[in-house]
Each structure stands twice: as C-alpha cells, then as structure tokens.
Amino acid sequence: QEKTVSVSDESILTATATSSAVTGTYLLRVEQLAYAHQIATSSSYADYDTTTFGEGTITIQVGTGASVEITIDSSNNTLEGIKNAINKSGAGVTASIVNTTDGYKLLLSSKQTGLEGAITVTSDLSGGEATLSDFYDIQPAQNARITLGTSEGGATPLVYESSSNLVEDLIPGVSLNLKAASTESVVLTVEEDLESIKENIRNLVAKFNEFQDFVSENTSFNADAGVAGALLGDTSLQRIQYQILNNLFRRVTHSYFENVAKIGISVDHYGRLSLDESKLEEALQSNLEEVKKLFVNTVIATDADVEVVSVPYAVESLLEDGGLEVVITQAAEKGRVEASTSLGSDTLGQDETLTFNGSVVVNLTAGMTLDEVVATINSTLEANGILVEARNEGGKLVLEHLLYGLSNSFTVVSNVDASVPRSTGIGTTELTGQGVDVAGTIGGYAATGSGQMLEGGAGTPVEGLTLRVTISSSELALQGNSQGSIVLSQGVGASLKESLDFIVDPYQGIVKSSQDLYQGLIEDINERIEVLEERLSRKEELWREQFVALEEALAAFQTQGAWLTQQLASLSALAQSSSNQRS
Predict the structure, then answer these.
(1) Closest C-alpha among 70, 124, 74 to residue 95
(2) pTM
(3) Which of 99, 361, 415, 446 sits between 20 and 30 A of 155, alpha carbons compared?
(4) Domain 36-139 adopts which CATH fold?
C-alpha cells in the first residue's frame, strides 16, 4: 500500500515515500548540503589559447578512486588544450576556463558530491612559456549532514551524513531531496494513502458490476425482442460468477472486520455490488490495519502466546504448502534476584549501600521502610539508565530486569551481610539476575532465541521468520511444548486472485474448459458439415449423371421422332400419288 508524505517546508527538503515506509512524524534539520569539490589555478593567465605550458603529465585522483594520468604535449599544452585533455580523460572531473578580473583560470569541478569526490591534482610539466600553478579550493568537498530528532528536553538527535543531497537510507522507505541548509527543523509526516485505498475498492466494485452486466446480457432471453444471449444456457459463466462472489464475501478469520460487508460492500438481488462510502471511510479511519488484513494474505500464529513479528517472502511462499508447527522447549525469563531474608514491616537497622552492575551505587539510610527502599532503588536506577525494577513482594525485596533474555542480566551486591537483622537481605556476595532466552523450533527447523524473540536459524527454510513468544515457564509446563502453528491466512484480494488465476488458467481453467467444449462442438459441427457436403456432392454427381443420361435419351427420342416424322411424310406422299393415278 502506497504512502503519502508531506513536509512542512519544501524549500528546505522534499520527500517521497514507498509502500515500505513506516507511518509517523519525523523532525529533521538540514545542517549542511553536500557540495562537489571545486578547485582553480592560483595563477591567472593572459589568454587561454596562445600561451604554452610545459610538456609531461597531469595526474588527477577523485576521492579514493584510481588515479588518471593525462599526457600533455605540444598538441595540447595551452590552457584550452589542457582543459580538453582533462575532459576527454574520464578522470571524474569537469574542466572549464573562467575569465576573472585577473585573467583566465583553469577550474576543475568534481562530478561527485561529498567528501568522496575530493580532487587531488599532481602536475609534472617542464618547459613552456608559463608554469601551471597549484590549485586552491573555491568550494570544498562537503557531505550533507542531517539530524533526526530534537535536542529539547535533554534528548540527543541522530546525526546522518551523506555524500549526496539525495538521501534514501536515513528513514526506511523515504527518499529525501535536500535543497537548503537551515537552522530550523522541518516536520516530515508519512501517512497511509487512504484515498488510493478507497479508489482501489471503488474500482473493485465497478469492475465486478461490469462483469455482472456482461453475464446478464449474455445469459438472458429478451422475450419482447425474441433475442437470446450468446451464452444462454451456458453454466460455466454462472460458475465463474458464483466463485467470484463466494470469494469476495468469504469470511476472513484473521481480520476484525471478517468480511467486506463490514466495510460497506453489499450485493443486491440482481447480483450487483454497491459501496457505502461513509462506512468504508469509518473503517479506514478507525482500523486501517484490519482493513488491510481483510484483503491481503497475513501470516498468523494460531496460539495466543505466539506473535508473528516479521516474515520474509521466501517463508510466506513456504507457508502456501501448509503451516509450521511452533515447539517451545524453554520460555523466556527476566533476570531476577530475591532477597534471602524478609524486612517485613520493620525498617532498615543501619545505612546500606547496594551496587548494581559494578558501578551504580544506591545509598539507603537507616530507618527506611521497605517501600522507601524500593522507591529509592527505582529512582536511582532509572536516573542511571539501568532497566531493573525493585518491588516489595510479601515483605521481601525483589529485583527484576524489565527485559527478557540472557543479554539483559544484571548484578547486585550489598555492603551489609544478609544475616544482619533488618538488612535488605541482598548480602555481600554478588548476586546475578540472569535472564533466559526463549528456545524452540519452527516447523521442525532450528531457531535462535533472544529474549522473547525466536528467529528461524540461518541456512534453514525459515531463516528470517521472527516470532515473539510470550508464554511463561509455568504456563509452558501446563500446556506442553507444542504452541500451535504459523499459518498463511488468505485475504479477500488474495483469494480472488487465486480464484481468477484458476478460472483463466491456460491449461486447466474454467475458461479453457469452456473453450475446449465449444471448440469440440465446432469441430463436431464442421465434421457433420463435411459429411453433408460429401453427401450433397455425391448426390449432385448422381443427378448430373442422370441428367446427362436423360439428355442423351431425349436426344435419341428426338432423332427417332424426326425419322418417324420423315417416314410418315413419305408414306403420306406415296398414298397421295397412288390416289391421283387411280383417278
């Protein structure tokens, strides 16, 4: 999800943020900008293209980079020639000639800002009409320097230096473009881009309704017009429609909102979606993270005593094949020291000094109650930055580190023996409050504990997966080592994508199956057409043969008829002749 970023004074710096940026407000002060090193010849010259300098070499080095040696000879030993030779050398500087009130000077500018771009020039020229002088700084190489935080209230801001005025690694996910140094701080605010989230949800509703209109248009029958949709009676489209709706309104167990209806998306009896903008706005403003969980895949722990802190992408992919069992063999513990004797309702019988971690001294005075002892210890330790808390537990002094784990251990010793009546009971032998790191495995793979944090072991498939395990030792003893699993819970968006990927899968998807079905029907129809065309062709051929035979028969009949007509005419003439003779 993209973030928006705002800066209180964009004349000092501007910023952009990516989706990985952490929302919050940051106080920044640009103490100085990064500058590229610029140097010029200390001497000035009357011209730049006539006066010749000696021949030999000029060596230029930028920062700690490789030195570049430039040859100067009779073809390039004027100021102009030297400038051109430097620019062609790739030495990491730009050479130019400036015309000052005293004459022409050779100016070199580093192509790299910051201290890393400092220029060193060594000249080894001999002969010529003039000597190429040494160079002096006209603009020193300088890093940008920014502070993050404030010095008010005794705080110490973080100081960051960069060789560039484009700073991309001070605040994760935020790029800073430094424009001016200032004594004033600017406020940079990173926020969720709620408008883009709303626009994406609006688009989801609109695109679904377009699909719904397509389904209605192509699967209905218009009785008045007598027109049927192209896919009337095709069940595949209804299956796709059902799958999309079912995935869109599925229950998402890992989100507070559970389904999209809770954030304002509803469906009417025609199957079209509508969006309640006010309900969506309220959900986004009140619980944005839970809205995100509604749409995206989320890695969750099935046990309440285990929390997922970070998940590398590789592990998320691994979880698509199933959950990872969490087995805890040791619960994390805080370092703890308990007095060997109880002071109860008595008061200290003498002055006593407790020393923590070998250096921090807490002075206690005779007559203090146990509660006063506790208060004095806590105020002194807090002032010295020691994260140990003193408590009165049933009349005994108990000291406990505020953090879990072996690295958060502490020591304490008293100048009064624990056997002395009305003492703190700590004693003159140094005691160690040693914390314990959580221990266990994730998905059967080794994991490393640090305090309550359990991280997948290096080189294992779960490397980088970090869990916070909050179960206590007593609870672990009761519940057993198995503490549920780490699973991938699908959000609506991820579920829809998975469903659509299957629908349009080019090998096994519903669309492919329908295409194959219709292609099969088309091929069957084409085969039937070919058969019918072949039959018609044979019929046509038969009819042609019969027609030819008929024409031949008719021709024969016509010839025979002509002959008979001729014979009859001859007989008629003969008869007429005979009749005339008798007359």
Answers:
(1) 70
(2) 0.56
(3) 361
(4) Immunoglobulin-like (2.60.40)
